[in-house]
Specification:
This protein is 76% helix and 0% strand. By secondary structure, it is an all-alpha fold. Helix 1 runs antiparallel to helix 2, helix 4 packs across helix 5 and helix 6 packs across helix 8. Keywords: DNA-binding, Transcription, Transcription regulation.
Length: 189
């Protein structure tokens, strides 16, 4: 995975060479294809691992345990923890930048599709929990609310990973409240 991360970081997704990854790692092609379908599967697995590491560093966020009173503040607290974890390890930011670059180039399938679908499922559960607590609106179809939240979160993520190196510490501290407030304003009843 480190060989793949290095290759993607140095060359981007499109120019990354599976042969160079295999050479760096000492893995044979038959072994690679036992674990991965192709380069897209490897990239998606790498991004998923990076996101899992980021979430593990930030701690657990259990949507089911959220209360109405603490729903949005818990989201802010968790987002702050994610920002702190990303600040400690820029690898997730670099992979995020590649991920959103692929999406912007129209590569909405392959290396990004399963990650987006997993995010949609999580967002759907988040919205349902918020509705059950009375802190997320119910006047619009759930699918529309999921699409709205996905669009906002993707725009925020894309902006953050694109501008990460220029975002100062003070601005990073403000991001959690500002970005969660943007989502809250769209989803609140």
């Amino acid at each position: 995975m480190q060989s793949a991360a290095d290759e993607f970081a140095e060359n981007g997704y499109e120019r990354a060479s599976l042969n160079r990854i295999l050479e760096r790692s000492g893995m044979g092609k038959s072994s690679f294809y036992y674990y991965f379908e192709d380069k897209a599967d490897l990239f998606a697995t790498l991004v998923e691992g990076s996101v899992a590491d980021l979430f593990e560093s930030a701690g657990r966020f259990d949507v089911a345990s959220l209360s109405a009173d603490a729903f949005w503040s818990a989201c802010e607290d968790y987002y702050r923890a994610i920002i702190a974890a990303a600040s400690a390890d820029d690898r997730s930011v670099a992979l995020g930048w590649m991920f959103y670059r692929l999406r912007a180039e129209g590569a909405e399938s392959g290396p990004t599709e399963r990650i987006v679908e997993a995010a949609r499922a999580w967002v759907g559960g988040f919205i349902l929990r918020g509705q059950a607590l009375g802190v997320v609106r119910t006047d619009l179809p759930d699918g529309l609310l999921v699409d709205c939240m996905m669009g906002i979160v993707e725009a925020i993520d894309r902006w953050v990973v694109t501008n990460w190196s220029e975002i100062g510490e003070a601005a990073r501290r403000r991001m959690a409240s500002e970005h969660v407030d943007l989502v809250r304003r769209v989803l609140s009843p």
